[in-house]
Design goal:
heterodimer, A: about 160 residues, alpha+beta, four-stranded antiparallel β-sheet, 4 helices, about 30% helix, B: about 375 residues, nine-stranded mixed β-sheet, seven-stranded mixed β-sheet, 19 strands, globular
Amino acid sequence: MYLRINSPNVVRECFDGEVVLVNLENGTYYSLERAAATIWLLFEQGLSSDTVVTTLATSYQVPVEGVRRSVERFVEELASEGLIVRSNDPIVIEPESGATTPMGDPTAQFSGTFSEPFAEPTIRKYSDMQDLLLLDPIHDVDQSGWPAAKQANES
Amino acid sequence: MLQRAGAEREECSRLFFAEAVHSFESASEATGTVERSFLIADTLVSLHFAGTAMEGKISRPFEHLEVELPRYRTTPPLPTLKVLIWDSASTKTPALRPPWTKEEFTPLGQVIPCRSGRFRAVYEADGRLLSMVDLTTNTAVYWARDGRDIPFHVRATPLRAILSAWLSSFGWEFAHAAAVGNRDGAVIIAGHGGAGKSSTAMMCLEAGLSYLSDDYCLVSSGAAPRVGTVYSTGKVMAADRPLYSTLPPVAESIYCADADKHLFFLTERAAGRECSSVPLTAIVLPRIRKEQTRVRLATPREAFVAIAESSASLFPYSPASAIRVFGDLSRRIPAYCVELGPDRRDAVRVIKELLESQPVQPREQL
């Protein structure tokens, strides 16, 4: 199994090892750190799920099966948030998406070992932007078919 | 949800756009045309008004960037966007009817079939305004049901959707941020509404700094990140008006009772077209606190979230490219959390220090 970012609805930025994902559909943004960021970047570089698991197990020096369960849970969570698209074929790099960039041999960056122990990958979710985006949702259309503004007394 | 093939969607949008242009021409024949041109981010934006009802509502915030055609010429000619502006009420032309279904509008009015490709379109329900750009012919339409209904926030920052789509193709993105500086550079001040953007910008104007924006400015990354002005407007709480001695008379402002704010047109005071964009030297993230003012270096991630969060309302226009520019700037430009104490003049002092001592440099060299 391969993953790709759910572009153009989702964009990502990296800051000092942290991956920030923004869902432009609803304004929610997500922060991935440590193992979660590593897993994301490995998938983003076009590795299959099996390769990601073995790369992590080798780098963190932990059993493969435990890592596999963690990765599967993590992928499930990414999918449920609409951040990724799963595929049985290797991902196609989409230059216009800006989300994925070929970086040579991706496993080369993770061929060493990490000094910190492997921790369960987690996603931190923020809805601050969502609050701003949904300040004035359109409820209906008027007689001529244009969206009607939300009335002030509507909740 | 109604699904349409890409080609069919674009053809539908093309036909509607042609109909809108025809509607403008009808309005123009009936009421005459007023044309005014503005130099915005090294492009020429030519506004064609059918009649005068919309001209008075739309053009004033751009007057600091106005150029006289055909006297103003460049070699080679600048990229030019032609914007056709009219309202149905004053020109007595039929209202446009959308070719899109209810499901084809996002909650903020973006037309889903026009999010990529040749056209961009947004309908602002509160002002009953349609903005639509044809990026192939460099033409846009800006239609209002009734020009008298244009809301306060649109009077302050009109044509944002159109300019956002147009300027994005030249590497400029709108940021919800104030911007002040001098001829050598400027800082952007990013944060939520109420964080102190407008008041800080107005205080900097009062202190003699160059004024680029109190609410929405342009930013670009690339080899040398820059910040640019679009609107000369400044908003001031009615109670704070006496704090500013250099503002135009209140009688020349527009008052919004709901917000208890005056909207001033700072045509003579804002950075004009001679320095409409300058290097971006720092990102300032204001915070209000009760104790003494203090400043600390912000992380790139803090800067990114502050700019992206407060610019969230821009997402319908050019979301992905804007996010990328914000991310790039956040990684490259030093950012500071300025925790403002009770004396708001501290913000001016800090910004002046940043401008005087802050050449553009990578974060790791700080």
